[in-house]
Please model this.
Amino acid sequence: MRRRLTAGAVVTATSLAALLVGLPTTPAAATATTEYTVVADDDVSTADAIAAITAAGGTVVASNTAVGTYKVTSSAADFKTRAARADALIGASANKAIGRSPKVSPAVEQPVTEALRGRGPHGATTPDPLDDKLWGLKMVKADKARTIEKGERGVTVGVLDTGIDASNPDLAPNFSTKLSRNFAPDLVDVDGPCEVESCLDPVGTDDGGHGTHVAGTIAAAANGTGLSGVAPNVTLVELKGGQDSGYFFLAPVVNALTYAGDAGLDVVNMSFYVDPWLYNCKANAADSPEAQAEQQAIITGMKRALNYAHSRGVTLVGALGNQHDNLNDPQVDTTSPDYGGTPYERPLDNKTCFSLPAEGPHVIGVSAIGPSTSKSHYSNYGTEQIGVSAPGGFTKDFFGTPQYNNAANNILSTYPLKVLQEKGTVDADGNPTSPNVFKECTQDGKCGYYTFLAGTSMASPHAAGVAALIVSRYGHRDWWRGGLKMNPKLVEARLYRTAQKTACPEPRLRSYANEGYAAEFDAYCDGDKDFNSFYGHGIVDAYKAVGGR
Model:
């Protein structure tokens, strides 16, 4: 009998009722009710954590016992301060905006207007109509890899993002409704009015667009329409942990990661950072005690969740970020908090400040390169966290040639019709109004839409797709859960070992002045051909990863 897969670590408010009975309530100054994510200290029991939260003026409505996080509501104006002072708690992070407009996710640039199968070789695939525009697919040799391995249906890739538009005919064949989950209900203050009464969008939808683009690069089907992904036969699983507006908060991300471990997913792609702090610092002197406690809570919660997923067989792949920072030596953060308060200048200490999940445990960090293999101007880099590099797009690549300043230097992938219409690049009749948006329809009239984006968000799914091919080729049958499994450490080792070794440019100081960028974008490449701060272990190579020579 097949075991039903459930997110067993997520405890609902109903199941907490027995623990809540009889706990005292504490009056506090009245204000609007706010939702928080609270992280308990190490080795604190659920009962003691709930007691501390209640004493601070909060009400627990749900919990993730795997990582010690609690969804809490409170009308106490000083709840964050009291939670930070409680011995049993690390801190609280607010999940409600205070006069802030939706952000454009730093993990992505805007669309460019500026039952298991048998294993073994599956034969070559005729390119899909738009594949000739996928320079990234060719750079990572995913087209050649298909002569050996196109991916196994039993290999599951979680897209921890804003959702997946499963109506796209390139994504529908590989989308698992059964395994997909939404962990991020709409927040009307930043996402706008809810589309459904519960505010929990159904799986298979994406009102942000980002997750759909990522999903297409990983596993768009090679089916004769639209375009194809790096691993066109693997299964896509929506893990909606991002808001429609592009924010990614602690509780949805943590819950998605623990679910990925419980459900036995093979790979999870993470093209985002956890809001509201670009860098989470343990004790930054520029931060208030409450802000310090909030960041300590995010660091602890993310560390626990990443460890949990990794220990249950999930290979974790993450975008390094688009702040053109050397992650070995980040300078100043001027954008945090981007939600729930006013940003201010924060000097950064590399030893105690982290961009998460990119700098979290077990995450394969991916930098972005353009079609010339130049490091993209926006891409973060650094020897401490980089694992590999992959195509992410660079509009102004090939300076001095006809290819310079061209949208085609970016990454083309799937995108929701609704979002394109909201952006004004597709009209009410479904016809593109921008030369950088494409429409492809099947013989039965089902149409998919595609656009260019650039960012480390686009690089990470190339690496995640190659990781899925590695599991497909070398994983072992999991007779308990079904599908294939492979130790994440072995997946990571093969990804690194087979990457295309790429030396630093000469001169090593890469200036982007010709492309029109200020000196702050200048980046120095440190290391040798085998491993350096721009390319890590090299550019991911799907063909070599599955046994090609």
Notes: Residues 126 and 460 are 25 Å apart (CA to CA). Confidence is low (pLDDT under 50) at residues 1-30, 97-124.
